[in-house]
Amino acid sequence: MRRHVVIHRPAAEVWSLVGRPDRIHEWFPGITSCRVDGEERVVVTGAGVAMAERILTDDPLLRRFQYRITAPLFRDHLSTLDVIELDAGSCMVVYGVDAEPAPLALVIAGAAGEALANLRQLMEGGL
């Protein structure tokens, strides 16, 4: 599954939030907090569920962030966020999700769509 949004802010500005794994709770609804320790991130949902993730890529040149959810619910998971410059004042943020079992990709992609809309509102409204 893949979701995307165009944000009328410079890509570097958007990346300064998206590229910080410790700040996901600031723009992803349903995540209330997170902790990052090296390549591990643990996000806590509004329901109090802690989900462990492994950070695979955090590349400021490509503006790409990738992670795997390592919780037992998933046999396999990979999410990729890309911040792509469109011009000096706007960018596209793409959130791709692969998961096994496949229905979990639908759940994450639905939440990711909401998160991208929230990110756009935050960035365009000024942080």
Mean pLDDT rating = 94
Give a quick account of the main beta sheet: strands, pairing sense, barrel closure.
7 strands, antiparallel
Q: How much β-strand is present in the residues?
A: over 45%
Shape verdict: globular
Cα Rg? 14 Å
**Helix-residue proportion:** 10-25%
Q: Separation of termini?
A: 29 Å
In the CATH hierarchy, the third-tier topology is known as Alpha-D-Glucose-1,6-Bisphosphate, Chain A, domain 4
**Number of H/I helices:** 2
Structural class by sheet pairing and helices? alpha+beta
Second CATH tier, the architecture: 2-Layer Sandwich
Walk me through the topology:
Elements: E1 2-7, H1 11-18, E2 31-37, E3 40-45, E4 50-59, E5 64-69, E6 76-87, E7 90-100, H2 103-125
Model description:
With 127 residues, the chain is an alpha+beta fold. It has one domain: START domain (Alpha-D-Glucose-1,6-Bisphosphate, Chain A, domain 4, 2-Layer Sandwich). The protein is built from 2 helices and 7 strands, in the order E-H-E-E-E-E-E-E-H. A 7-stranded antiparallel beta sheet has the order 1-7-6-5-4-3-2. Strand 3 and strand 4 form a beta hairpin. It starts with a strand and ends with a helix. The mean pLDDT is 94.
Main attributes of the structure:
127 residues, alpha+beta, Alpha-D-Glucose-1,6-Bisphosphate, Chain A, domain 4, 7-stranded antiparallel β-sheet, 2 helices, 7 strands, 24% helix
